[in-house]
């Protein structure tokens, strides 16, 4: 088999650009995806992540740039000549073939005659033994998704591309499949490139996440690293949510960067500051922002701002508060419902405080005001952590 | 808490609508009635009449009247007298079907998958000839294929035809006429099938190592089978029974079984023979359709 003969290598995208007319979908993208890793491309719809995936698959021709697999540039190869397989968003199972033949499709096209054993193994891997003679239309969405996965994996591709494969599933099934996918990836050791707009999905499964915006990669790294120390305001609010206060960085003092925001002075450890001078965002994640109704109870070393609780949403594991500051911005704070503290009523005057080691400093375009995300429908990642 | 949680579930379920059995049981039959009456009066009754006519005494005539003698011999007699026209009918329409498939499949595919905003215009173009009479269109072909026409002139110039070669009044003309006249019946069902073909399936096939040719054979073709079967039947059945093309574009040497039936009923006034030939044609077509549907494997048809 192809995938076993040639040793797979890293997947490298070099200066990859794709334009549709005047619209630049992917803008000079350079990226290395190590062999055997679970890599997630995360971004809102229209950010170019699916186009990137389709260029790796060969379904889209890059305007310029290279797609390197090991040492080979595969950018010019037709899709059916690439050792790359895709799990499509719509699954794209062949409706006229049964499950067995769907899974065997790739093997048969490469002239392999004895396919039954491999197909059975693959169906077992995705826990669909005994479904071989059914038609795709007779399966549920989750089962179809697993067939699509088996149909791609059976070819032992060097890279498996997943285009929002869980998007059509309901929340519970999606969780289950996330764990399943991660298990299978660990088992087969193939490079997975997973495209998703769901930040939680990306964080649950991937070793490395690349956050894409407007055809470019804003930040790349391990999920926890990106979450704890985002590189840009976009990332800070796309991966989870953040309270970003418009601030001015005023140089270094020892190991800290001094910051002024809305007339108060704060500091951020130099290791968590993306800049030392000029317009900046002072950021704190909502779950790192604590509320007390008595200013004297602010722990030593914490920094704080005052405000009034303007909204409180009880979401079970936590309560999400909005705190209106003196200058009118609304900060978000999540308080875990651990049973240790009481609930704060709307209208209570509070002090919001944080440990400066949890704050971060990001570049800000001059003139940009505070960015404080509104409450989300879904409890964000931080709330359950 | 749990009791409360159940309330919206039971309240949210709409009460089952009151069942009115008498009326709902009759309704399907009422809907069937007009069509059934139509079929009975204009199909079943004439069919029985034709069947009995095919068994009349061949010695009778319209003026003296026909006697019912259960003359099954009419069938072998008719077949023996006209088997060349019989086999010619199937040969011509089979050749025409092949030509129509070679033209019609790419045409239907292009309209369904590649035409974009021109789709509707192209569909109208396929159907538009049907707005004029079948006769007028076939007569137009007479002009196109005429000895002094541009087409024959061109073919003579490039020596595809001899200096005295002609198209009109040859088997070629009849086959071309059949191909042209019945092409829309093939293209429309094919179009309907191909239009539903999800292009993402072709992407998936290509992702799974299928070259464009293999993807066509393994995905496009099987998924267009319903349209292909419907289209070939809609083409082949009327083409085999056709007599206008042979009449207008051919000579008695190109006559098909339709011409013989036509003359049996309207010229020679030999009703038993005409009826026997009609039934033979019907039986032959039914047999072909039956074998074809078996072979084409309706299993693969969704």
Automatic annotation (TrEMBL), chain A:
Pfam families: ABC_tran, TOBE_2
UniProt-listed SMART domains: AAA
The keyword ATP-binding belongs to this UniProt entry's keyword annotation: yes
Molecular function GO terms recorded: ATP binding
Residue ranges that the Swiss-Prot or TrEMBL entry lists as coiled coil: none
PROSITE patterns for this protein: ABC_TRANSPORTER_1 (PS00211), ABC_TRANSPORTER_2 (PS50893)
Stored CDD domains: ABC_PotA_N (cd03300)
Boundaries of every ABC transporter domain copy: 11-239
Keywords, alphabetical: ATP-binding, Cell membrane, Membrane, Nucleotide-binding, Translocase, Transport
PANTHER family (UniProt xref): SPERMIDINE/PUTRESCINE IMPORT ATP-BINDING PROTEIN POTA, SPERMIDINE_PUTRESCINE IMPORT ATP-BINDING PROTEIN POTA
Protein name: ABC transporter ATP-binding protein
Protein species of origin: Micromonospora chalcea
